[in-house]
Amino acid sequence: MIETSKDILNLSLAVSVFGLAFLIGWILVYFLIIIRRMVKIMEGVEQSMNKIGSFVDLAREKLNHSAGYLSILANGIRDLVNYLIFKKSIKNKKK
Question: What predicted TM-score, i.e. pTM, was given to this entire model?
């Protein structure tokens, strides 16, 4: 089987190529596992950003609706203050 130094060289080359192929395959597996974890993390970040975006949209919508009510409320308070000032001035004129 092993008769010459060429046979030993070929055997050592075969073992080396097999070892290198195994090492490259192992590195590739770990690389793919890392990429899969990164994809899962990015999906989680994307879901979180979508939730934050929907919350901001909801808050903006609520503020826009409440802004309309604030103008009505401000007009009502202004009218109430004017009415109270008018009543106070009538009361002061009677004295």
Answer: 0.53
